[in-house]
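Honest question from a wet-lab person: if I give you the sequences of every part of a complex, can you actually get the arrangement of the whole thing, not just the pieces? Trying it with mine:
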Amino acid sequence: MKARPGRQRGGTRSVPQAPPLPAALTPAAMQRRLRTASLGQRIHYYTSIGSTNERALELASEGAPEGSLVLAERQTRGRGRRDRFWHSPPSVGIYASLILRPGIESARAPLFTLMASLVVASGLAKACRLEARIKWPNDVVVRGRKIAGILGEARGAEARLSDMVVGIGVNVNHRSEDFPRELHGRPTSVRIETGAPFDRCELLSEILEIFERQYAALLRDGPADLLRAWRGLTSMPPGTRVRLEAGHEPVEGTLQDIDDDGALLLREDAGSTRRVPFGEIVVPL
Ligand code: BTN
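Yes, you can. This is the full assembly:
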């Protein structure tokens, strides 16, 4: 006898199966997947928290070891750069903060956030096959739309950085409607780009494994390789005209390069080169 469509031989109705949802981003799931020696081996996990960066700064000041990771399913006061809010809805994103103790001069701290953006772009390329690029200083973009952001923070004003926190936010399984209306059109996610949900444990593990290698190389060999990799992945090549918000007055000019501390070098119209350690490219002109 021929089975009728929609029924199995035993008479039970076959229901079209939705693809299985990726696993929750829990410490147990991370432990099964993660292959690092230090980064992420201690996880402080929260189903909901104000900001993982804020918590990581507290833990760092209490002496938490290097590589400790604060991980949350949701943030209620996620922090972005320049006092912005980082929208962090439950169960779709990666909201993670790493405690580092690099012991280098504080002026070089931007190198570590620059490195983190490169690491996240490489993780997205390797795990999700996305062509991710870096928009100075720390944005990760796909097709010009932001998919991840990095927030490096340190407390205190020591000459050497005894501890710092690198916060990583990645839009993974967000659909367009998961972003606030006012951001409409600007952010993107792995799911929007590939059309399918992705396992956040797999992506975060990939990111931490690349991070561990790059971090060791940066401390051991200095920034030359990092800067070379950055030049290959920048979304705005030298010669691009930009407007920068850096301090009170916007500055306009032509992008030249970044220096050994990760500061942007901008050729101003008068011909001089301005060094911009912190800021944001607001308008490619
Ligand atoms: C930016 O692009 O403005 C930086 C966004 C950084 C967001 C991450 S999410 C995890 C960590 N905790 C925070 O409060 N912020 C960072």
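Two things worth pointing out. The CA atoms of residues 7 and 13 lie 4 Å apart. The first helix runs from residue 27 to 33.
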